[in-house]
Amino acid sequence: MMKILGHQGKIAAVAFGVLFSTAVFAGNEDRAGQAGASHLLINPWARSSSWGGANSANQRGLEGQFMNVAGLAFTSKTEILFANTQWLAGSGISINAFGLAQRLGKSAGVLGLTITSMSFGDIPITTTQNPEGTGAYYSPRFLNIGVSYAKSFSDKIHGGITLRVINESIANVSASGICLDAGVQYQTSIGKGELKKDNFVFGIALKNIGPKLRYNGDGLSSGAILPTGAELTVDQRSSDFEMPALLNIGVMYRGRFTKDHVVSTAFNFTTNSFTRDQFMLGLEYSWKDIIMLRGGYTFEKGIFSGDRSALNTNLYTAFTGPSAGGSE
Questions:
Q1: Is pLDDT above 50 for 11?
Q2: What is the DSSP track for 72-95?
């Protein structure tokens, strides 16, 4: 029986308890469509995307800021990343992400910064008088900036937290807000010998916890002329919308056949507050930690059914189905 003793174990126990207790308040599919800021659900990093979301337990380095910020604690010195994604090829949607992580000291932890921007290209402005377009365009943009801190409490327990600032702008209206991510990872050995060292990893991460957002701006104002000839400006109020809060619970097992050949299997369960829960399964083959081949699959209840009700509007989307990739 494995035991976690001392101050570090207490810290981990409290962290796990807080994260698990939050799951009690998770929503259900009846709340589908009540959350916005869905760009927070898109992984901007190419390498970790090939897992299909399955590797929340063992995602390490700067890319861990998306799946499980605890993985940021494994940054050894300085890490810089840039990624460009053509989202849904042919749609004109692009995602640019920049990240920087810096270890503060041998035991002081790691500080990380990520900036992610999502643009939708130029969209023609149409009106009831000009349904074919006025000749003018608007360009929606989504931006989120995350500042993270992660630390290894021991060689087994790692934790981290991210504060994220969000801005969404569409023509002359915008919404801004903040949200919080937190995560922990625990690794241990199943079996004996060097090839079995730290071959089992468990992780849990809470994401996108924050207050409601609301759009504001001149775009919600309209002018009218009263029968008396007086001019009147009417300001409309948009409805609030929630953050897409979720909880990731993942495990991973590394099968080391030799020192150079490793096959890792990962599983992740995502409980979403505003849509159906998801199950992810991933597989990775690594040769000398130089070349990796990965594949993943995301399953969601009802994804293959013919039901096109409001609760199933996310069928056959980029968030579900197979994914694959390689890196070196």
A1: no
A2: GGG--SEEEEEEEEEESTTS-EEE
